[in-house]
Amino acid sequence: MLEVISLGCIRGDRRLFKDLNFSADRGELIEVRGANGSGKTSLLRILCGLAQPAEGEVRWDDQNIRSLGEEYFGSLAYIAHQNGVKDELTAIENLRIAGGVAGNRLGEREAQEILARIGLQKESYLPSRLLSAGQRRRVALARLLITKAELWILDEVLTSLDAAAIALSSRFIGEHLRNGGMAIIATHQELNISATATRRLEINSSVS
Amino acid sequence: MARASARNHAQDARATKLLVNAPFLPSMFGWLVWRDLILAWRRRADVLATFFFFVLVVSVFPLGIGPERELLRSIAPGVVWVAALLASMLSLGRLFGNDYQDGSLEQIMLTPQPHYLVVLAKILSHWVISEVPLIIVAPLLGVQFGLAQNTLGVIALSLLLGTPVLSLIGAIGAALTLGLRAANVLVALLVLPLYIPVLIFGAGAVSASVAGLDTQPYFLLLGAMLVLSLVFAPWATSAALRISVE
Questions:
Q1: Interface predicted TM-score of the whole assembly (ipTM), two decimals
Q2: Measured between beta carbons, which residues in chain A are less than 8 angstroms from residue B101?
Q3: Other beta carbons less than 10 A from residue B41's beta carbon
């Protein structure tokens, strides 16, 4: 379970948010909403442990994520604005290497099946630099299908995806939640994900 | 154009496919090293550029100075080592830069293994890609300076012990300047002073060999530097990376 306790974030000399409290239990979806520049990405990066909060703490199973270190990273999957997809590698290599580096080894056939599931069966041997923005995003999303992480932190993942891909990813995010996972998604779009509990978190940067 | 490069790529992919499939990658460490080696192979123009920089810089000296045997012999250690230093510095931008730009550095930093090992894997692959070719070619280049055979061996050995230190120390600078605009200049200012001990003892070993003196003390000192930087540099680099990524 993820707990956020009186979290505050300052970027440069601008305060983005303060005294943010929420928690996410298994099966829960949290939608993070807010205007551009309100601190959605900063919040998600703090939740990942990539950035340090100005005040407050993030707890995972009652322990501060800073003291958990890489143990926490094992239960976390993060997809950022930037896909983390290497241009020089093919879609299949991207997926297999990302899996191998994160400790989820993946055979070539398995990787192909997963790419087919995400609608890239024809493109799996193309270098990623020839893929469109939406296709690259699909390669990044394929990482979610191989990870064993419970907590998915997704930053505007639905941008540049077509309707079919949005429906597909909503479906497998829903599946993840039904299997006891949790997801924190920053988005401007309406999400159509079937979850037992969906919570909305509004960030407004008007706080002081 | 796109199709031609796709075909080219397909050939590359076939060449490395066998190895991507290899079962000898038991650990995340292995995958990370292997990933960087494949990426370097796909972008080999970058790697070759620093390699030829080293070859050219070393080769220009005998041409410029002329066939004065004694003079060439006495400057050879310094020339080879300074060129290795500069080539090593040129390649530092590659160490984390590309991964930082496309967001894969964040992904790597979020893998469930100690940052020390992550950074060590990146440095190891960087050393294999950027420095090992220099170590191999340096004795050949030494022939142009009329060096004796055992001195050529000393060149290779001193580079073998010294260049990992350059990569390890350079990684700290590369991590600190990640994402900055004048990163290349800054990294030189940060890292060159720290390279100086390696330069002194590396070139010193070769000079001692040219003069027919004992080279062992130099190697011991280089080895000590290697051990020391192996312990501290990845740790400092991961701390610097955390600051830069934030």
A1: 0.88
A2: 82
A3: 15
